Automatic annotation (TrEMBL):
Its main location: membrane. Pfam families: T2SSF (PF00482). This is Type II secretion protein F. Keywords: Cell membrane, Membrane, Transmembrane, Transmembrane helix. The keyword Transmembrane helix applies. The chain crosses the membrane at residues 47-65, 85-107, 113-130, 265-286. Residues 152-283 form the Type II secretion system protein GspF domain. The lineage of its organism: Bacteria, Bacillati, Bacillota, Bacilli, Bacillales. It comes from Paenibacillus borealis. It comes from the Bacteria. Coiled coil: none annotated.
């Protein structure tokens, strides 16, 4: 077993070096592609070559589609294929490191548990990364949904005070004072930048809807584009009707989050209950035996 683990470490290391030399500067253009959460970007380039040459995406099309769809919702349609490739490279990099770590642990300790642990984690961790990606996308959509009614209320007030829609949105973005950490205002700031770059109101709004990839944002965009030319009381009335509907959806999301939070407390409460029973029951049990 020790000889086998030593051979595995050597083969994994030499294989990575061979693939890295074969890559050369092939993926140099992807190094500066903005994408959050990639910690092993440089280490994963050999695996990008492996993924392309072996056609791994064609063997697991449903998984690749779900990953690419989630990345499109987070970063938009542009460079979605490249980001999917980078994410797959990250997954393979973690698996490679865990296999080497498990083999090295068995090599130095002589215990079989090291290689078994490394192999198990090499399978589980990529699945956890994909699950975490989907969870982040759902959280982003919920955050957009929770903030959208507040934005719509502000737009209704500003339009009712005499501002046009474009100027009302710019005022809402400027009220953040440069803090665009929230995904909705981040996309709005990009939209206002497109207006300044020469995009039309309609085109910029449609791009904003595609980047958010949320049904309620699409409804908001459609309502604005259909009614903003009319202006006046009809436009404000349409926005107020939409605002009431969005507030109901916000309440539903808040209730769902509250239920999820309460369900997460069940396990700690059960553990605390068992600990209390042990602390109270152990002295009584010892006294009965005496």
């Amino acid at each position: 077993m020790i000889w086998l683990c030593g051979s595995a470490v050597l083969m994994l290391g030499l294989g990575w070096i061979f693939l890295r030399l074969k890559c050369g500067s092939r993926y140099a253009g992807l190094r500066g592609l903005p994408m959050d959460g990639l910690r092993l970007r440089g280490l994963g380039e050999p695996f990008l070559l492996l993924i392309e040459q072996w056609g791994i995406g064609s063997h697991i099309p449903s998984v690749m589609f779900r990953i690419q769809r989630s990345l499109q919702r987070s970063y938009g349609m542009r460079y979605s294929a490249e980001r999917t490739l980078l994410f797959m490279g990250e997954m393979f990099s973690y698996s490679w490191l865990l296999l080497i770590g498990g083999s090295a642990l068995t090599l130095f300790s002589g215990e079989k548990a090291g290689i078994l642990l490394g192999a198990g984690l090499a399978v589980i961790l990529p699945v956890a990364l994909v699950s975490d990606l989907h969870k982040k996308v759902r959280l982003r959509e919920q955050n957009i949904m929770l903030e959208l009614p507040e934005l719509l209320n502000s737009i209704v007030l500003l339009v009712g005070a005499g501002e046009n829609v474009q100027r009302a949105i710019i005022r809402c973005v400027e009220s953040r004072k440069g803090d665009y950490s929230h995904p909705l205002y981040k996309e709005l700031s990009i939209m206002t930048g497109e207006w300044e770059s020469g995009y039309s109101f309609q085109q910029a709004f449609e791009n904003f809807s595609k980047r958010c990839a949320v049904q309620e944002v699409s409804l908001f965009t459609t309502t604005v584009l259909l009614n903003y030319r009319r202006g006046g009381a009809d436009f404000v009335l349409s926005l107020r009707d939409l605002s009431r509907m969005l507030w109901e959806k916000r309440k539903a999301i808040s209730r769902t989050r509250g239920e999820q939070a309460s369900s997460k407390l069940v396990f700690p409460m059960v553990v605390i209950f068992l600990i209390v029973i042990i602390l109270v029951g152990t002295p009584a049990f010892m006294m009965m035996k005496m």
